[in-house]
Every structure is written in C-alpha cells, then in structure tokens.
Amino acid sequence: MVDFFTLLLILLTVLVLVSFVFIKNKKKNVVNQSIPVVSNCYPIIGHLLSFIFNQSKFVLDCRQRYGSVFQIKLLSKRMTFITDPRDWSTVYRNPDFYLPADDLGMKIFGMSASHFNHKEFHDEEHRLYTRYLQSNGLNGLTQKFVKYLRQSMSNDKATFENGQWKYSGLLELSHFMVYEASTRALFGDIKPLEFEKQFKIFDKKIHYFFAFLPNFIYTLFFSEALKARQSLKKIFSLNVHCKDESEFIKHRVDLIQAHPELFSSNDIGSSSVGMFWASLGNTVPATFWSLYYILCDQKALDDIQQEIQLYLPDNELWTSEMLAKCSKLDSAISETIRMAASAIILKYCRNQTHIQLHDQRQLTIEKGDAISLYPMVCHYDHRLYPEPFKFKYDRFLANQQMLANLELEQEKIGSIGFLPFGYGKTMCPGKFFARNEMKICTAMILKYIDYEFINLNDEPEQSRYRVGVGIAPPEHDIPIRYKYKSFSVIDENY
Ligand code: HEM
Description:
The protein has 22 helices and twelve strands. Among the domains are: 1-30; 114-297 and 420-493, CATH 1.10.630.10. A hairpin with a 5-residue loop joins strand 6 (353-356) and strand 7. The radius of gyration is 23 Å and the shape is globular. The chain is of the alpha+beta class. It has helices at residues 2-17, 19-25, 48-53, 55-66, 88-93, 101-109, 119-133, 135-158, 170-187, 196-204, 206-210, 215-221, 223-238, 247-257, 265-280, 283-295, 298-311, 320-325, 327-340, 375-379, 399-404, 431-448, and strands spanning 69-74, 77-82, 97-98, 166-169, 346-349, 353-356, 362-365, 370-372, 407-408, 411-412, 449-453, 479-484. It starts with a helix and ends in a 10-residue tail after the last strand. Protoporphyrin IX containing FE binds next to helix 15, helix 16 and helix 22.
C-alpha cells in the first residue's frame, strides 16, 4: 500500500518535472520502422506505469502481441526487448552494446563515475572473480558458509525451550540462514547482525534505485533508504579489512586501494556495499524459492533426502565436491532458478548499430538506446521447457547434456536458453557460491530441522515490483513453525 502511494506521488512529480526533458528530446525521437513499437504510450512517461506495476506481465503480453522483438519507452529512454534466445549471441558479440555499469554503480550504490571505463581495472577485477569465486576459492568460501551457518543455527537453537516450536516465515528463515553466514564467509568479522536492519531497509527499496529515476525523487521519497545506504557505506569504509575476511574480498579491496586515481575514499565503502548487496539481494529470495518448491514436493524431498544422507556427512564441513555429488538437489536448484529468475539483462548502445535476427530481419538500434534480453520469457517457453509452470525437480538431472541439447524449432540453441545469471563477460561471478548456499540451506533444513507450513494452501506470487532485478522475493511471507533436531557444531579451529 505504501509502495503504491509512494509511486503515485513519484509519478505526479515526474510528470511535471520531466516535461522539459520531453521537449528537449523531441527531436531525437526517431521512430525505427524495423521494430514494432508498443501502443498505449503516454506522453512523457511512456510505458513507465505498466512497466513498474507488473513488469513480467507487461513484457509477456507485449511478446504475445508483437512477437519476439518490440520497443517501449520509459521516460525519455527507448528500450528494445529482444526475447528470442536465438538472437542473444548476436547481441553479446556486438561490441556496441555494453552494461551501463556507470549508471548502476552511481544510482544504486552512490559511487562516483571515474573508474567505470577503466578497462585494465575491470579485467583485473574479473580475474579475481575467476580465481576466488570458482574452484579452490569457492571451496574455502563454501566451507566457511557451512561453519558459520552451523554457528548461527546453534545460537538460534539455544533460544528454544526443549521441544518448543518457533513461529516464523519461510522468507524470514531463508534470510536468517543466508545473511549472517554469507556475510561472515565473505567479509570476515564485521558483525553483520549490527547492520542487518540497514540492509533490510535498503534492500526493500532497491528496485526503485534500479529504475534510474531522477535524483531528486530519491531525496524526496526514499530518504530512509538513502540513510540506510549511507550508514552501510560508513560501516564498510571503517572496516575496510576484517579478521578472517575471504581472499576474494581481501584482494578486491587491495586492488581498489591500489588505484587512488580511480577510487575516492567514498568509493571504497560504496563498492563494498555493492558487493555486499550483490551477494545477498538475490540469494536470500532464491533460497526462499528453493525451500518452498522442494519442501512442498514429497517426491523431491524423498529423493533429495537419500542423497544428502549419503554424501553430506554430519561432522564435516561440506565441500563443493560433496555438494556436486547431490545431483537431484542440483537439478532442483536449477529448476527453482529457472522458475524464479527474472533479471532484465540490460545493455546500452554506444553507437548506432545494426543486428540481423535469426529470422533474417535487420534491426537498427540507435545510439543511447537500451536493449533488454529478458531471459524469463525463454525460461517459460514450453518449446524449451515442457509444462513450464510446473516445478519438476528432476528436469535438469542430465544437467549439462540437457542444457547443451536445448532446441528451438529444430534449431540447436544450447545453454543460452538458460540465462538466469547473464552471459559472457558480465555474467554473475557469484553464481557458483549462490548455488552452493542454496543447496546447503536446503540440506541443513532437511537434516536438522522439523518444520510445518501453517497454511498448506498458501501459494506465494513473486513480488511484482521486484521482478527485473534478479530473483524477486514473494509478495508475502509464508508462515511456518520449526524446531531443531540435534546437530553437532563443527570444530572451531577450521
Ligand atoms: C541466486 C543468486 C544470484 C543471482 C540470481 C544473481 C544474478 C546476477 C545477474 C543477473 C547479474 C548481471 C548479469 C549481466 O548483466 O549480464 C549479476 C551480476 C553480479 N553478481 Fe550476481 N546473482 C546472484 C548471486 C550473487 C552472489 C552470491 C554474488 C557474490 C558473491 C554475486 C555477485 C555479482 C557481481 C559482483 C555482479 C557484477 C558482475 C560484473 O562486474 O560484471 N551474485 N548477478
């Protein structure tokens, strides 16, 4: 209700204040004959209302009416949707399309812009991603996550009377399991519980920051979120290096500090807040959806129970290899992500460029225009995923082969038909860690927690406002009650 009201206020203000932008940009509004333009475009705001209120419905409707490519207008910006996976590699190969990292970093995390176009820095940062968020680096992080999660659970268990149930929500439980353990695994002894409230306030409004609204809107309507972001920035600026931080964070901060010509002291805190949010903002809701789908599916539960008893021992810190052996759990996680992922894969066009689509159509994208690939459309395409609205935990069991063999109208498209984490150079570097976290939380619940859903008929919907950011949380939490079985705390000296 508050969101709706806030939004109305925003839109009224926007209406008045951006009219001058409209007049200024009138000359630039060249209509591209090759791209169908979505109708019902309002003056000045364009399709902003339909887009913000129910993005996925709007995009799916447009696809049905206009085909796989169509254009909308958001304030003064044109955005072309390219929704057929057969056209995506053409986009990724075209150097004229780039991730608007400047706008994202500045708008969402309050960074200054000086370093975004610095290619050498970004190449070095991507080498760190590969070294520390995959292979050995990933294993260390995964084991720390297991260790800290067990500690959090043990502390939580101590607050229960013997045999007593605790009433909670599935989203709340997912947040509890991921937030502290993940933050400690990455950032070390930074005491995440002391700034949990600020994270929640900022995270709750983050989709407005992704909407790239004019700055005064944030100052006017989102002062609480701005204050929370400022407070997080201060905490991360004062705790640049913490005891027991991960190799990944250590080397990333060192790299930033080695470039004072690119990063102000303000940017060090902001960029850590960026990494902090990136590591949690999608992983918490993703964990919610995996728990929701798996715990509600008796066959999945039985099968996954068997393999976690076999491969995940009680008294060891689970490794990536152990988790990889749980192939049914792995498939259930992929299936959850297929159903829940809704990121807009956004690119800007730096020069006017032409692309040829798989059906031989030629598109001209103008300089400054935005394009979006919207993989969610493809994740729900019944030609790729039969019965797409049904959770089939074993759909990805043959995993790599299944993805490698994806076909659309007898044309092999392979794994580009599954794009929840993006693709190519800008692909999410945390995807392996996120998947491990989701598996660990599921396994911990199945092994050590008794749970009951309070209302078995409660079927959650994805939060409409948050769709487009990555993985949206549910519109409302699902009430549950839980209590612990006995479990051991792992050797503190690890
Ligand atoms: C299920 C959980 C997650 C989802 C769905 C997700 C999704 C995404 C998506 C869609 C992108 C943008 C890709 C593009 O534009 O091509 C992205 C980028 C990114 N993600 Fe994730 N992510 C998740 C978890 C994580 C975790 C756990 C971390 C860190 C440990 C992380 C760190 C990042 C970073 C640093 C980027 C920016 C990459 C760059 O510099 O180009 N993510 N993520």
